Amino acid sequence: MSRKAAASAIHLIRTGITAKSSHQFGNFTPPFPFFHSNLHNFGRRCSPKPRIDLSSINDVDDAICLFREMVKMRPQPSVLVYTKLLSVIAKMNHHPVALSVFDKMRRMYVPIDQYTFNIAINCYCLLNRVDLGLAILGIILKSGYEPNVTTFSTLIKGLFLDHKVTEALKLFKKNWY
After folding, report:
1. What beta strand segments (E) does the chain contain?
2. b/e map of 61-72 (b: 16 or more CB within 10 Å)?
3. In contact, 171 and 159? CB cutoff 8 Å
4. Residue 115 phi, psi dihedral angles, 5° rounding
């Protein structure tokens, strides 16, 4: 149906309802508020997703509030937005909070990609929990992702921070030679 035909059909419905009902009931409000909207503005583009402003995050509480809002949004924000939020929390050196958000993302089936996993690995390594970073590596492999250079270099850095030089060398040799 063309726009013109749709507009005239709506006009007929609108005038028919108003003409019949105004004689019987006085002032009439159409049963569908849709008919009172701006139907003539067909070309207007509406944003399908609300804009999420990560620059307004000043502290970790702002980030947590934003995460809670993002989870409630329909449709869900993209994995890129969730990963950027996780990165902001990690850059504020709130690694336990970032890992808590990562865990909530996984439990709520929020999309997770390679970059999200790498942020979690980095947080574990900076908390001297390389063992849990290696566990995330296992999840990456089970999820079908291919670990990248960032994944392995982060784990190697974590092993060095944890004074496990021989394990770092083994991981290096295993993946690059």
Report:
1. none
2. eebbebbeebee
3. yes
4. -65, -40
Which contacts (CB < 8 Å, 24+ apart) does range 141-148 have? Answer: 143/112, 145/113, 145/114, 145/117, 146/114, 147/114, 148/114, 148/118
Angstrom distances, CA of residue 133 to CA of 34, 45, 110, 174:
53, 44, 20, 17
How far apart are alpha carbons 32 and 26 in whole angstroms? 18
- Residue 168 near residue 159 (C-beta atoms within 8 A): yes
Quick one: what percent of the chain has pLDDT higher than 90? 47
By the 8 A CB rule, do 65 and 59 touch? no
- Do 94 and 88 touch, CB atoms closer than 8 A? no
- What are the tokens at 73? 């949004």
Q: Considering just the CA atoms, what is the radius of gyration of the chain in Å?
A: 27
Nearest residue to 174 via CA among 152, 151, 144, 150: 152
Q: Residue 37 in contact with residue 30, Cβ under 8 Å? A: no
Alpha-carbon distance of 56 to 131, in angstroms, equals 34
| Least trusted range by pLDDT, from 50-59, 87-96, 146-155 | 50-59
Task: Provide the percentage of residues in the chain whose pLDDT is more than 70.
Answer: 70
